[in-house]
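A note from the maintainers: we've had questions about how concatenated examples are separated. There is no special marker in the raw files; a new sequence line simply starts the next protein. For clarity in this README we add a label.
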Amino acid sequence: MLGSSLVEALRRGVEAFQELGIEYALVGGVAATVRGRLRSTRDCDVLVVASRQDLSALKAELRERGFSHLDRADRHVIEDVVLYRFWFPVEESGFSLSLDVQAGGSDYHREVVLRATAETFGAVELQVASREDLILLKLLAWRPIDRADAIDLAALGSPSLDHRYLHKRAEQLGIVHRLEELLREGQGEI
């Protein structure tokens, strides 16, 4: 039940991004699942690089598609990202799933969106952040679940990872020490 609602929330979100021409990349737990790290989640995390005007239009479009959003309660500034949380009702259970739209404006955020590739999740075609960028985003967040995701994503993609990109970006983002710790915790080298 929750899985089909998650897919439906993603479908509606992706349609809104496409309708407005907003480039995006799926990040977070669902993206990790698409890239091979199976785990449960109750939210969909999406990174966008968009103007204020585009974000205003996106809020209206998502509301039209069944999401709720209260600007005062569902908008959070976290470092260089503004998080907009949209709630999608799961009728059968009385719960809601969240579509967390992370509006970033840094060069790195733009690169994550540009490097994303088209993948399919539950019959929805969407843009998913690369395995390398997911690892880096997980290292930036650095919560226990993110560390576990990063270790598994690195192990799953070890032979095909772009090692040079990972190290270069980790250095630029100031997280080389976290990447090195990840390597010590994981099973091998990146």
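[label: protein 2]
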Amino acid sequence: RLEVVSKFMAGFHAGAKFADVEVRGGQTVECPWMMLGGVGTAVVPADALSTLNGAIPGDVLVLTKPLGVRAAVNAHQWLHKSPERLKYQSLSESSIRDAYSQACIQMASHNLVAATFLKEFNAHASTDVTGFGIIGHADNLAKAQNVPVHFIIDTFPMIPYTDIICKSFPNANGFNMFDGLAAETSGGLLIAFNPSDAPGYIEKLKEFGITAHIVGHVEKSPNNESDALLNPKGVKTIMDNGFALLHERPEL
């Protein structure tokens, strides 16, 4: 136990150091599960902040990490704990392990780089995609805008093989993935850009091994109510295994 806890804490400190953050203080309490977390506090000049509520009709939406972490992690657990749940899967064990490996890389990766360049490329609004899924967080962000808008999601970049995992469920929609409601852990940023700024931002992230994608657009709301929805004409899924783990803090 001492060895595991020591490594657990060392990893937390390494992550904080990567983000140029100091860890000060802490407490330990009894819990049935092993958990470690913290609260970040910062003071920055007002003009260094990226806006949250400036999305306008005509903007495009960019996502900086592919979706599918929950499917990848659960399928990997089933290999060991519930192999009967994999009987309808057409995937090999190695494919499931590949998906899990990609999910781990993403979960271990900061949004530091993606966030650093928001201001440079004039991001209009941004949020992270975590427990509510891409649609849930897009909906929350849409409702925070200064003008009534619809955020239309038309593309799901996904960790390879996770689409197959989700389609293997009896309803062909495991974890509500294709409704845009599958929870993500350490998900990417969802960002609204002017269409002329998005390509430059995407190219900049490629320099750091991050493959971002345009996943939707912003429309004017005809009824003065803001929300997010899937494109009624259909949502395209694309496979993305181009996410690289940065082992050292890059020069930004």
